[in-house]
């Protein structure tokens, strides 16, 4: 059975940065929307989580890649419940995929946008909540949850990662490429911002015409990155 390191394609003695890079790559490769499978995507998420939790050889994955899981032993069947689970760190972000708004015929400024989303029964990739920890960008927090949100430059230059802030405080750093008018409308670049309060955001808004006009193709950054390897 593959170890979490084998699933991510990194050496067991890889450092944190290499593990995160490998995780991001594998998330992109295995995401169902990118031609991967739900099983492989889940296995990558589990592998990363297990490494972060201090993987020891011999651990069993929570979601084996093939076949039914073996039955629990007597001791495994009744684990001691955690009497006091830790509170998640950071602020809470409620997110919605812009594709859902387009598919449903909704609008970004609908007053009940997130109420409708909560009642819609959408996949976790499209609607849900997660926490953004201190010193983490919104994009990094989404990726930590295993979501493959759009990005390219990771430096506030291309707008592929644009989100719309519907509620909450999310200031931009001094340097960004958004015109003031778009910034005033709540558009932010998820690779360089972090929420200061609980927030509601719509991601994947690069298809909004005013944002799309600023878009630099992701292929430009892939070429730049490979030419410096
Ligand atoms: S990924 Fe390019 S602006 Fe965020």
From TrEMBL:
SUPFAM superfamilies: 2Fe-2S ferredoxin-like (SSF54292), Chaperone J-domain (SSF46565). The keyword Electron transport applies. Its cofactor is [2Fe-2S] cluster. Pfam families: DnaJ, Fer2. Residues 47-63 have a biased composition (Basic and acidic residues). Residues 77-90 have a biased composition (Acidic residues). InterPro entries: 2Fe-2S_ferredoxin-like_sf, 2Fe-2S_ferredoxin-type, 2Fe2S_fd_BS, 2Fe2S_Ferredoxin, Beta-grasp_dom_sf, DnaJ_domain, J_dom_sf. Keywords: 2Fe-2S, Electron transport, Iron, Iron-sulfur, Metal-binding, Transport. Residues 118-207 form the 2Fe-2S ferredoxin-type domain. Residues 25-90 are annotated as: Disordered. GO terms for molecular function: 2 iron, 2 sulfur cluster binding; metal ion binding. Residues 3-67 form the J domain. PANTHER family: FERREDOXIN, FERREDOXIN-2, CHLOROPLASTIC. Belongs to the 2Fe2S plant-type ferredoxin family. This is 2Fe-2S iron-sulfur cluster binding domain-containing protein. It comes from Haloarcula rubra.
């Amino acid at each position: 059975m593959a170890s979490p390191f084998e699933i991510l394609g990194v050496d067991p003695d890889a450092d944190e940065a290499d593990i995160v890079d490998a995780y991001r790559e594998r998330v992109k490769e295995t995401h169902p929307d990118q031609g991967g499978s739900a099983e492989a995507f889940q296995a990558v998420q589990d592998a990363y989580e297990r490494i972060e939790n201090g993987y020891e050889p011999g651990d069993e994955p929570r979601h084996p890649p093939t076949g039914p899981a073996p039955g629990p032993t007597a001791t495994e069947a009744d684990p001691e419940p955690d009497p006091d689970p830790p509170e998640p760190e950071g602020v809470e972000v409620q997110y919605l995929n812009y594709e859902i708004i387009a598919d449903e015929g909704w609008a970004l400024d609908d007053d009940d946008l997130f109420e409708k989303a909560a009642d819609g029964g959408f996949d976790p990739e499209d609607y849900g909540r997660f926490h953004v920890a201190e010193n983490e960008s919104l994009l990094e927090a989404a990726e930590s949850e295993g979501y493959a949100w759009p990005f390219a430059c990771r430096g506030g230059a291309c707008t592929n990662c644009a989100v719309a802030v519907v509620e909450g405080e999310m200031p931009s750093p001094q340097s960004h490429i958004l015109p003031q008018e778009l910034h005033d409308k709540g558009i932010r670049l998820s690779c360089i911002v972090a929420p200061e309060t609980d927030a509601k955001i719509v991601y994947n808004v690069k298809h909004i015409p005013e944002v799309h006009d600023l878009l630099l193709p992701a292929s430009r950054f892939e070429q730049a990155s490979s030419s410096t390897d």
